[in-house]
Write a structure and sequence with these properties.
By secondary structure, this protein is α/β, with parallel strands linked by helices. 44% of the residues lie in helices and 13% in strands.
Length: 418
Amino acid sequence: MSQFKSQFLNLMVERGFYNQCTNDQGFDDYLYECEKTGTPAVGYLGSDPTGDSLHVGHIVPLMMLRWFQKCGHKPLTLVGGATARIGDPSGKDKLRPFLSEETLAHNIDGLKKSFGKFLKFGNGKNDAVMVDNWDWFQNINYLSFLRDIGTYYSVNRMLTMDSVKSRLDREQPMSFLEFNYMLLQGYDFCELYQKYGCRAQIAGSDQWGNIVSGTELGRRKYDVELFGFTSPIITDAAGKKMGKSEGNAVWINEEKLPAYDYYQYFRNIGDTEVGKCLRIYTDLPMDEIRRLEALKDQEINEAKKILAFEATKICRGEAEAEAARETAVKTFEQGIAGGDLPSIEVTSAEGLGVLDAFLQIGFVSSKGEARRLIKQGGLKINDQPITDENYFLRDSDIINGQIKLSQGKKKHGLIKLK
């Protein structure tokens, strides 16, 4: 039996996206009325352009917005051209570094690309629209803002918000600049309500305080109920946040991470995370997901392959997903070095030390790390463990025009002759 009347909220619960809502029944009534009349509800997801690509950790609320659009509603993606100049203090111990105008412009272009992989943008009634809060903040008058917006905020209440309270509890300094962040995000929500009729904000659970700042401002200043809806923070079996791979973010944009590496991230998910990841990172129907997550032992690897393919298809397109899958099959199942593996090109293999080779291909961050892995038997050339850290590659190591480098069982790359 469905828990809600609206298609969207039932999907969110079934697929594991539901964490917290400012008013379950009110949001459900709003969505159901929109779905019944064919009038799109409007909801937004915000991202500050502090980097030039989103990563896997950002995909959870982005997939929520994707389902929001699939249910006939209209998504807004807000890039914080203004708020990035302050920096969200949530989960941070210090003030973010200030970014130049050129860096902000570059990062905003990168975020547009990331959003465009998951949402359909255009002029249709439920097509996504990109907005930038710099448009309304760049010429705002400070005294007017304090008078018109600041009067609706209680400092006592602000001090109880997690983004502030946790920082102060850790005795980490917080600048007055950062303290203003929730006012700006609250103002964003109300500005989007006035401009686009936006009544919902979708985000990760770490944004709850900032979201409530907007819903409370809407109620007090504009006498409207705005809704906040958050997803849980997705973690692996070890309790680590999804989206981090050996300290490096799993980036959405292809300039930051090859499709093969993106595919392999999901292919190497732990057995216990397969069902959760199929629900969240793919569009597969629930009947198929239930069938896949019920697989046991070696069969679970088939579910992981489907997860990796479907997740990569959404983010990088079907052709890239097919190429990544083919490379994985060649490398792991047929013992052939697939063409999409990470690679470096050299004019000659002679004289290239193994430490430098693994450093150049990006499998280690330092020669010290390479030495440790060699002692543990974790680095291989052409599938043979390296025993001498001072070994220099030779042309005799070349097989079919290339040399295969491996770190452990799951990370492979190639040295190719120019």
